[in-house]
Amino acid sequence: MDLSHRRVLRARSFDAFLHLFSCLDEHFLRRRVWGAMQVVVGVFALVIPGRDMSYQAACKTVFHWAGIRFGWAQTPDHAGFARARTKVSTDEFLRVLSLAKTWATTQLRQVESLLPGRMLVAIDGSILHVPRTASLKRSFPIPADRIGLEQYHYPQALLVSAWDVARRIPLAWKLSSIRRGERDVLRDLLAVLPALCVLILDRGYPARDLIGEILASGRDFVVRMTSAESGSWPEVAAFLASGKRSAIVDVLVGKGRERRSVRLRLVRRVFARGRPGKHQRRDVMVVLTSLVDTALDDRDLCRLYGARWGIETIYREMKSIGQIERWHGRTPALIEQELLALMLWFTIAAVFAQLTLVTHDDPHPDRPLQRPNTKRVFEAVGIVLEALFCSALSTGRVAVLFLARADDAINHIRRTLQRRRPGRSYARKAKHPYARFEANT
User: Is 151 helix (H, G, I), strand (E, B) or coil?
Assistant: First the structure.
């Protein structure tokens, strides 16, 4: 088998991309111009991570990708694209994202986990600044001070999402007003999260009624507790006073007449000897979990909670690389379209990143694990997607060249793998501050 044929086989393994956009109705507006499938692909191109795209540039990109397949003789009008977006519901985007998540889960079945057979789901919220329009101001308020003066120019929305942190796949999400708390929004997500998963939560989520609802749903959790004397639970304060590193205690959960006592596990993190790392402090960290009967020791449970940092990285990449806050839409529905399209990018990129690590032969297996450069992964996804669209309409040597270029993009991810440096951490600084103020240091 020659090299070119091997390249064709490797690139064609991602042919499932083409089927993700084939499940939608194509004619609701002018036939063969802007249908639901064309709009989804258009918004998908509009939010390409790492590139500043306009409506006009997105139309050119979609025409380059699949103009012949859509039956377009020339680049469509960007004004028509903007009008067509308002006629496509969010359900169409959800359908494509659901197919992508199913495909990605199938491709990433062998991902290693501290709890084999259990999905680790990190949940967290983030504030997004949205354009200042009348429609968005009605849905997302602008914070004001005590006398009613606006503290920001742009409205703020609260995005609470749940991610499979081992695979980096979005599972559920909710965009709501900042007047709702993250705990309240999490209750809406519980019904759609996978059964028998393990929820990993930060210390802003512990509430007795919420933990009772999580346990009643049949799911486990790992959550960091507040250890300060003024704000900690009595069970946590008694555990810290005992000086123990781990203990199984009775904790009251639920509310009102439904309050009951359950057996949960408390673990205190033990620091390694020596000076703390850069930008680190030796804060007391206590983890509460319902994983009482597992074989995980104290260190493993702390590592399990540490996996939650993956969702913080995802939010940072959404804002810095994905530039999600540079919105094109001016209504809540269009904002949700762009969020779903960006999550579709992350889902596809997760498959690329993981398969690259699986097929990469590390000459130094004793060194720390490697991770792909996220920006390079997004670039490779765009090149492979373009190659698959174009090669599907070409034959012979032209198709081989398209797929060979896509394979080179995948190989480029391997050449830019980055070492994970243990014990190193740096302060996060926004690269694209959108209506944000950096702290003076």
Answer: coil
Tell me how far apart the alpha carbons of residues 319 and 49 are, in angstroms, rounded to a whole number. 10
Contact between residue 181 and residue 158 where contact means Cβ atoms under 8 Å apart? no
Phi, psi at 90, each rounded to 5°: -65, -25
Cα distances (angstroms) measured from residue 67 to each of 294, 360, 408, 434: 54, 35, 24, 34
- What is the C-alpha radius of gyration for the chain, rounded to an integer number of angstroms? 24
Closest of 272, 251, 364, 375 to residue 316, by C-alpha: 375
Q: Residue 76: how many CB atoms within 10 A of its CB?
A: 21
Q: What tokens does 279 get?
A: 């930008």
Residues 200, 229: Cα–Cα separation, whole Å: 23
Which of 174, 210, 205, 209 is closest to 192 using CA atoms?
A: 174
Task: Express each pLDDT in 95-138 by its tens digit.
Answer: 999 989 998 888 887 777 778 888 999 999 999 999 999 999 99
Amino acid found at 159: L
Mean pLDDT calculated for residue range 90-99: 92
What type of residue sits at position 112? E
Q: Where are the domains of the chain?
A: 203-292
Q: Are 55 and 350 in contact (CB under 8 A)?
A: no
Determine the Cα–Cα distance for residues 21 and 379; give it in Å rounded to an integer: 20
Give yes or no for a contact between 128 and 159, defined as CB atoms under 8 angstroms apart.
Answer: yes
| Interhelix angle 309-320/332-359, nearest 10 degrees | 120
